[in-house]
Each structure stands twice: as C-alpha cells, then as structure tokens.
Amino acid sequence: MYGGALLFLEYFLLGVWWWGHHILQNTTIPSPGWDLAVFWSAANLAITHGATAAYDWGLLRATEAAILPPDIFGPFSYPPTFLLLIYPIGLLSFGAATVAFSGCGIALYLGMLNKTLRSVPDALRLPWLIPAVAFPGVWVTLVTGQNSLFTAAAAGAALVLLRRSPVAAGACIAMLCIKPQLGILFPLYLLCERQWRALASAAFFSVLTLAVSWLAFGTATFVAAARSMAMFRHAIVENGGVILYGAPTVFGMLRSAGYSTTVSYAAHAGVAMLVIAVCVWLWRSACRFELRAASLPVATLMVQPYLIYYDLAWLALPMAWLAVDFVRHNSNRFENAVLLAAWLVPAQGLFAVLSHRTGQWAPIVLVALLAIIVRRARAPQRVIAPHESFDAATPPVAAIGAHASNPARGTTA
C-alpha cells in the first residue's frame, strides 16, 4: 500500500513538473531529464559535427540552450564508450529520446530484478513489482535523465549470471565501461570468488568495447574526452560548490562542509581502504552468495569519491539480494529498518540538494547496510523452519513487510 501511494506521489510530482515547464512554459523550472539533455546534445553534436564536438564545452552549451534554462550547463563527462551507446538518440527529437532512453532503462532494471528474485513464482511477483517501480532511486533517475538504471541493470545481471554463465556475466561487467568507476571493484570480487572465466570474459569484452569505440570515433575523441573529464574533475568534482551537496560520499560530505580537497580525499581514501578490507574478508569467506552479492554494490558506492544521489539507484541490488536472504534466513527489526532507509535514501539525497540543509544521509545508510551484511555472514547459518517461516513462495518485499509488522516471528539471521 505504501509503495503504491509513493508511486502515485512520485509520478504526480513528475507530471506537475513537466506541466510547469512545457505547458506553462515557466523558464525558471528546468525540464525533467536535464542530464539526458546533456546526453542528447552530445549525441546530436557527434552526428552533426563529429564525435570530438561532444566534448567541446562551447558547442555543447549552445546546443543545450535550446532545452535547458540559460543559467544551467552540463558538460559531457563520459568516455567514448558511453557516447557510442547513446549515439542513436541523437537521431531522435529530445522528447522521443527521453521516452526511448527512460523506457529502456526501466525495462532493463525490472528485468534484472525479476531474475534476481527468480525463486519467487510468477503469480506472486506483483507485491514486489510496485515497490521496485516506486523505489525513489528509479524516480530520481528518471527526473534527472541519468543512466543509473542501465549501470545497475548491467551490474545486477552480472551477479545473477555469475554462477551459471560466467562468460555472459563478464560481458555484463564490460558494459560498465560506459561509467568505468562503477566497475572498479568487480575484478577484485572475481579474484576473491575465483571466477577466472568471468574475469577473462570481462577483460575481453571491455577491450572489445574500447576497440569498437576507438574504431568508430578515432583517437582524437579519446584525447578530447580525457581533456574534458580533467576539466570536469577540477571545475565540478573538486570545486563544485552546490553540486557537492548532492554527493552521497565521505568526500562530498567533507567538501560541502568546507574541508580542503586534500583532507577530503585523504579521509575518503581511509574509509575506502577499510571497506575494501572488510569486503575481501567477506568475499573470501564461505558465507552465503546472497550476502557476498549484496556487499559488492554497497562497497562500490562507498569507495567512490564522486557520486551523485541518482547513483543510489544501485541500492536496488543489495536490497534485492538481502530480501532473498531475509526470506530464507529470517531477519530482525533493525535489519528491516535499514532496508527501508536504503529504499528511501535516494529521495533524501535529492531533497538535500534542493534544501542545502540536511546533508547526505546515504553514507550512514551504506555503513549500516554493510554492517548487517557482515553480521549475517558471521552469524550461524540457520534456515528457518517451514512452520515458523513465510510460505516458500512469499515474495521478498512482502516478507520484509510481514517481518516489520510482526517482529516476533524470528530475530536471528
């Protein structure tokens, strides 16, 4: 019920937003999908002026001006591998590109979650479908027009396929070349899991993706991309001011609080090394696969110095894997509360940017998520008995809700 109510509210607000910009033509209200406007402009420039033009900030600003308010400019800070993916949307109008891009992202995201929760019978999938669509991470991604649903789908599919089709899993990992910082922990994870075929496949398809991008766009485009990303890092990541309020990382929190770049990077590096050490122990242990799979996206979000609230769409992955583990091995009230906080925190991240007051709560939620994963990995493995469990076919989301409403039904992992 709550998921359905939030789903209605989210898309009602999106409709009001769209109405204010497109129908009332209020120029102070940016069009929904402002980051997609950057992607579309880059693709359009690549088609009309050559791929290097996508990284020309002057040309990009002029193209974006037809869509975005004059005081808003977004540089294209992605590698040519992502430009290759979005190249076709430059052939469409911006409206059609928005529908196509958003629709593909939602379809891939839901398909990935469907496979993650594949043990749930088809007839009982609706109870988790509404919370999955209502997840604020999806809404925030659609509002901004970002690619987080694509990257989450690629990472999630890799985890689903890893045990039964490691070559296909490696191909999915290679898709993270569109935003390579999100794939940084996958090689370490595969080494710890001794998934040699998946590791070789990921390396092969990553090189193949880079080679195809190079053949399509040439060396000059890669040089232009490197220069543009260096400018982006200096101008926005390290000195971005307001935008850093939207960074749900230790680095972002410290920079927005006024600490120097050096101090912020050093503190973030310390946290990242601790997280990696914990995860290496976890990945080399004999704990349940669901827990190892849940920890990877959590760690990925924690080690990145620069993320924005829309990247928290990745929280769908640990929530799904933990939901399955909760059904099989029970959970307690605190764990259910942490999962609820993880479900809500992408919306808080957006509101923190709009208000400039609350700060980002995501780092705290991520620490709590990793903590419950580690606790469950250390606890004695106990599968709940049929007479005290949910029905074996109970969908994970429904199971979590049932736990929350009746915590007496077991409190150990």
From TrEMBL:
Pfam families: GT87. One of its GO terms (cellular component) is plasma membrane. Keywords: Cell membrane, Membrane, Transferase, Transmembrane, Transmembrane helix. InterPro entries: GT87 (IPR018584). It is found in: Cell membrane. The keyword Cell membrane applies. GO terms for molecular function: hexosyltransferase activity. It comes from the Bacteria. The chain crosses the membrane at residues 6-24, 36-55, 85-111, 123-142, 167-191, 203-225, 231-251, 263-283, 303-324, 336-354, 360-377. Signal peptide: none annotated. It is a multi-pass membrane protein. The keyword Transmembrane applies. Belongs to the glycosyltransferase 87 family. This is DUF2029 domain-containing protein. It comes from Ralstonia chuxiongensis.
